[in-house]
Amino acid sequence: MLLKIYTKTGDDGNTGVQGNLRISKSHPRIIAYGTVDEANAALGIVLTNSLDEDIANILTLVQNELFLVGADLSNPNLNDIKNRVSLEMIQNLESTIDKFESELPPLTNFILPGGDIAASQLHYVRTIVRRAETHVVQLSEKNEINSNCIIYLNRLSDFLFVVSRLINKRKNRDDILWKI
Hints:
By secondary structure, this protein is mostly helical. Helices cover 57% and strands 7% of the residues.
């Protein structure tokens, strides 16, 4: 239980991570899980829209899973605890992508973000997830991490793209085709 939201322990530019360690707030670990948190917050904005129940439920599950990604990334010692991000989470995203794609026409062009507001917002979340993935890869180049985090984020950006298209289809909005 937190007694106060502010602790003043980070006033010197350091923050605590698992294992009672303190590291710089500019450390790649903090940037990686901070960007995951940003994606989660942006997903919360999407969930304020009127969404079909199946989409709202899976996006809420993703929010909870993003917390697990952040928890794994905040752990500098993988030997201390069991990794939380699992292959089953990745497989669940893949099966949901397959299910949702079955409702969509095949892509024949690149598409631009847009259409319904929720679809547009999900495209934005997708770009944050891609940035988070990049930061997690950078972290993994110098620090041991649960490699499932990278795979999960990679798959999540694909999932968000598909859900964006699905929202547009269900709301009778056309994908916006890239034209030159």
